[in-house]
UniProtKB/TrEMBL annotation:
Organism: Halalkalibacter alkalisediminis
Catalytic activity: xanthosine + phosphate = alpha-D-ribose 1-phosphate + xanthine; guanosine + phosphate = alpha-D-ribose 1-phosphate + guanine; uridine + phosphate = alpha-D-ribose 1-phosphate + uracil; inosine + phosphate = alpha-D-ribose 1-phosphate + hypoxanthine
UniProt family annotation: Belongs to the nucleoside phosphorylase PpnP family.
E.C. number(s) listed in UniProt: 2.4.2.1, 2.4.2.2
Keywords, ordered alphabetically: Glycosyltransferase, Transferase
Name of the protein described by the UniProt record: Pyrimidine/purine nucleoside phosphorylase
Domain of life (superkingdom): Bacteria
Role according to the record: Catalyzes the phosphorolysis of diverse nucleosides, yielding D-ribose 1-phosphate and the respective free bases. Can use uridine, adenosine, guanosine, cytidine, thymidine, inosine and xanthosine as substrates. Also catalyzes the reverse reactions.
HAMAP family associated with the record: Nucleos_phosphorylase_PpnP (MF_01537)
CDD domains: cupin_PpnP-like
Catalytic EC class: transferase
């Protein structure tokens, strides 16, 4: 889906790593939550409390999930992060992304 309909947008930005990673929260009538944002080149580590779908819309990055090897996405791609995990990113060009928070199983 290239656009969201009938949503609430939280105006305040989520800012990480001195502004090198930013996003805005989108809330759906169904209770679903997503963030959409930009990551500038750099190396980052994030922790999750909820399962996440990371949809890369543009750019190039490598990601490493706990216990896995590094994988690369250039252009568009998706990866999933389990709940209560830490993952690493090596962003090589500006990355446009959408993160969907999924129900924990």
């Amino acid at each position: 889906m290239s656009q969201f309909e009938n949503v609430t947008l939280v105006k305040e930005a989520n800012v990480y790593f001195e502004g090198k990673v930013t996003s805005r929260t989108v809330l759906f009538e169904s209770g679903e939550k997503k963030t959409v944002g930009i990551m500038l080149p750099g190396e980052y580590e994030f922790s999750t409390s909820q399962k996440e779908e990371m949809e890369i819309l543009a750019g190039k990055l490598a990601f490493k999930l706990a216990g896995k090897d590094w994988e690369t996405i250039e252009g568009k791609g998706v990866f999933y992060v389990p709940a209560n995990e830490t993952f690493q990113l090596k962003v090589q060009s500006v990355v446009d992304y959408c993160c969907s928070y999924l129900p924990n199983e």
